[in-house]
Amino acid sequence: MDKQNEQLEALTEIRSMMERSSRFISLSGLSGVSAGICALIGAAVAFYHFHTGAQRYYEYATLKNGAANMDFYIFCFTTGSCVLIASLAAGIFFTVRKAKRKGQGIWDATAKRVLINLFIPLAAGGLFCLALLYNNVLGLIAPATLIFYGLALINASKYTLNDIRYLGICEIVIGLIASCFMEYGIFFWAIGFGVMHIIYGTVMYFKYEKPN
After folding, report:
1. Is a pLDDT exceeding 60 seen at residue 12?
2. Is the model's pTM score more than 0.85?
3. Which one of 55, 145, 162, 211 has the largest count of C-beta atoms within 10 Å of its C-beta?
């Protein structure tokens, strides 16, 4: 019986080593929660700034004389940059902390594969959003960010935890729904990047990180 237990433990350890070498498993659920909170704060600031309910927020992009409203673009760029920087900073902090606690590496070949596979759809999505902006199709920018972000998560999921794939699918579905209700773009953006990240991060924390 003892010998059988030792064999099972050895197999478990081998499986764990193989998983660590092929998948980036240092992602922290608290990173997702923090990113979701940052996104909700950004959305709240946008709601307050645009005083938007069902009103199309992107109508602020053009002045009455037809000229571009630079204040609109500056506000969106500043708010989006702050949300992105805060989310990345919190994500890096919690991921590094988790890796140190478990004695895992952070910057290895697997982490690089995750970032590359994440970056390709994100870069394509960013360029597509710039094309939408250039052609003044602002209502589709929020849905496009959700869809391409979901594609990026699915693309990167094969090199990290499988749970990320389900988050990616949810982001795509929310983005597709948002494309049919463009005037509610900020609402869907808040749901996709805010609420879904908080739910995902909470589930991940209790599934993989919470002390027994």
Report:
1. no
2. no
3. 145
